[in-house]
Automatic annotation (TrEMBL):
Keyword Kinase: no
The protein's required cofactors: pyridoxal 5'-phosphate
Molecular function GO terms recorded: 2 iron, 2 sulfur cluster binding; cysteine desulfurase activity; metal ion binding; pyridoxal phosphate binding
Active site residues per record: 326
Gene Ontology terms: biological process: [2Fe-2S] cluster assembly; amino acid metabolic process
Metabolic or biological pathway: Cofactor biosynthesis; iron-sulfur cluster biosynthesis
Subcellular location: Cytoplasm
Self-association state and partner proteins as the record states: Homodimer. Forms a heterotetramer with IscU, interacts with other sulfur acceptors.
Protein name stated in the entry: Cysteine desulfurase IscS
Residues annotated for pyridoxal 5'-phosphate binding in this entry: 73-74, 153, 181, 201-203, 239
Note: In Archaea the pyridoxal phosphate cofactor is not covalently bound to Lys but ligated by other amino acids.
InterPro entries according to UniProt: Aminotrans_V_dom, Aminotrans_V_PyrdxlP_BS, Cys_deSase_IscS, Cys_deSase_NifS_bac/arc, Cysteine_dSase, PyrdxlP-dep_Trfase, PyrdxlP-dep_Trfase_major, PyrdxlP-dep_Trfase_small
Organism: Methanosarcina acetivorans (strain ATCC 35395 / DSM 2834 / JCM 12185 / C2A)
Amino acid sequence: MENRTVYMDNSATTPVRKEVVEEMLPYLTENFGNPSSIYELGKISKHAVENARKRVADAIGAEENEIYFTSGGTESDNWTVKGVAFANKNRGKHIITSSIEHHAVLHACAWLEGQGFEVTYLPVDRYGMVSPEELKNAIRDDTILISIMLANNEIGTIQPVEEIGKISRENSIYFHTDAVQAIGHVPIDVKKMNVDLLSLSGHKFGGPKGCGALYIRKGTKIEAFLHGGAQERKRRAGTENVPSIVGLGKAIGLATGEMEETNKPLLEMRERLIKGLLQIPKTHLNGHPTERLANNVNVTFEYIEGESLLLLLNAKGIFASTGSACNSTSLEPSHVLTACGVPHEIVHGSLRLSLGRMNTLEDVDRVLEVLPEIVQKLRNMSPLTPQEYRAL
Ligand SMILES: *Cc1c(COP(=O)(O)O)cnc(C)c1O
């Protein structure tokens, strides 16, 4: 018990599943051909890439020729935001997104603002939810793209994407959703949801790092992202990352096929964690109580520094994340928690525990055994802690 490691940072990344590694291996060794080569060895690689494309398409209700392989979620988000903006600038220069998107969307939007585009960042409520009404009010004649994530990576809030898709469609505006965290946890059907572009990333669901995909609905006007060879229907040049694409295909098939079996224990663990953590005084749950990913727990402890908390957890073999983890070199608080209205005096005391297939109820109990002591220790050290929350 003492020396066990508890990995609860599955929203940051996941291990590549054994079945996935097995399918990838031949494409690192004997099946090393270039998919663009017309001889047999090349055709084997080409076939493997197309098989993976079909698996990705099937997982989200798309057609095979609407799937484009990329280097991950960041590229898919950047490609969407910049590619749609530049291809449609004759129609308008206005983009709508939310204030809690991943930085891959937010920073791409900020860059576009420097290029003469205008961006509206929709606020969210205290649970991190975007309001469809506010979205409607933000739409202008020159709006060309709406980008709202399916599920948030920090607080797990799941957005009303189907409703947002409907509004986008009614107004003939392209709709992109970052589904990186949602794959394997939320059922996705791009047709039903009226999604025109969707980002996903292999390493968030048991696939390899550095490989993702972008769904682009047939007929969508978007600039090519990389210019060069004719790969990916001339929209994303460069020799395909065949082994990783094979792994991505295998992983997404497993993740979506096993969604229900996976979510059930995750939900049980999530609820046990939340219940246990909220017993610590002056602790608040972040994100929506029910409309949230089965694997996400995010709380704020008052009078605590998240970074110190992580270090003490690390010393106990527990790996988790805080609202400032993405900016660990800066003291910037999480833009997501800030947008949800978490007061700045306490926003640094946040902790994200993101569960995965490997976690067990014993892991949950271990965390619940260790955390209250650590929180108390830190509170005892902080000059901000009121007397009543000091002594144990
Ligand atoms: C991880 C993540 C990304 C970035 O994906 P990478 O493949 O790591 O580049 C984008 N959006 C969300 C919501 C994520 O969680």
